[in-house]
Amino acid sequence: MVDAELVVSVNNNVMTLTINRPEKRNAMSVEVINNLKEALISAKVDNDVRVVVITGQGDKAFCSGADLSGGMMDQPKEQTLIDQHNARGQLAEIFNLMYELGKPTVARVNGYAMAGGFGLALACDIVIAAAHSKFGATEVNVGLWPFMISVPLSRSMPPKKALELMMTGRKVSAQEGAEIGFVNSVVEFDGLDNAVNEVTSRMASLPPAAIKLGRTMFYATLNMEPHQALGYLQTGLSLTTLTEDAREGVLAFLEKRPPNFTGS
After folding, report:
1. In this structure, what CATH number is given to the domain that contains residue 77?
2. What is the pLDDT of residue 1?
3. Which of 4, 15, 137, 203 is the most exposed place for a label (fewest CB within 10 A)?
4. Residue 20 domain-assigned (yes or no)
5. 107 vs 124: CA distance, rounded Å
6. pLDDT category of residue 85 using cuts at 50, 70 and 90
């Protein structure tokens, strides 16, 4: 539905999730959050989806965070304190769904990525940003703290740099984001779609089984001690060699033909 707050489309094995609230700088409403969760759950089990792209409508904003004007901060009076606490974990649910997706995720950043929107972008595996984009952990400016987004931030840059951005609330250009390391590529807005399509089409053509196992183990071993990580990764290597994709890849190499990866 083109008038929905989250527009979902699938083309050439790539699912694109577009936050469709340009008048609110694509801030996340309750509907957006719920629909993001549903779409990610669907993408995980849909074999036709090999890559997920998250973006915002228009050229002004990727996502400006939670919609503070739309009741996101208000909790119904009939809710218990536990209910209210659990409700505040919805962004964490989205991050967990993204990390556990088993498929590559790409942030197509087309403008402001602030607060929860900053976290949403950095929870993606790859961040491709238009040159005019700005990033910021701006919660401290309104008396809050970016608790939930500290996980994707600290996974995407040196911890002290993440802490600096969270303590100052300052906005960072796409170019500075690339220099810090949390932006993979900076392009002019007119070239944003081509840059995203180039990356997603490449990943969609590669073996889904190997990417799923490798990506899962990449995140699982981030905080492991080296000897623990190596043992875990050895298991991943053995499992990958047993897949049909691995057999097909080696056979295609020997026969000097393009492989046909099926994800099995």
Report:
1. 3.90.226.10
2. 54
3. 4
4. yes
5. 6
6. confident
Number of Cβ within a 10 Å radius of residue 92: 14
The separation between CA 92 and the C-alpha centre of its own chain, rounded to angstroms, equals 12
Cβ(166)–Cβ(144) below 8 Å? no
Tell me the catalytic residues: 139
Q: Are residues 154 and 218 in the same domain?
A: no
Give 121-149 as a DSSP string: HHTSSEEEEETT-EEE-GGGGGT---TTT
pLDDT tens, residue by residue, 117-161: 999 999 999 999 999 999 999 999 999 999 999 999 999 999 999
Tracing tokens 């990417």 back to the chain, one arrives at 211
The residue assigned the tokens 């703290």 is 145
Domain of 148, in residue numbers: 6-204
d(CA 118, CA 146): 10
Look at residues 257, 223, 219, 249 and name the one whose alpha carbon lies nearest to residue 103: 219
Residues 25 and 95 in one domain: yes
pLDDT at 88: 76
For 174-203, what is each residue's pLDDT tens digit?
Answer: 999 999 999 999 999 999 999 999 999 999
Beta strands in the chain (DSSP E): 6-11, 14-19, 51-56, 61-63, 105-109, 112-114, 126-130, 134-136, 172-173, 185-187
Residue with the two structure tokens 């401290």: 140
Residues 78 and 134 in one domain: yes
User: Are 120 and 16 in a shared domain?
Assistant: yes
pTM attached to this predicted model = 0.93
The rounded distance, in Å, linking the Cα atoms of 47 and 262 is 9
Give the tokens for residue 194.
């081509």
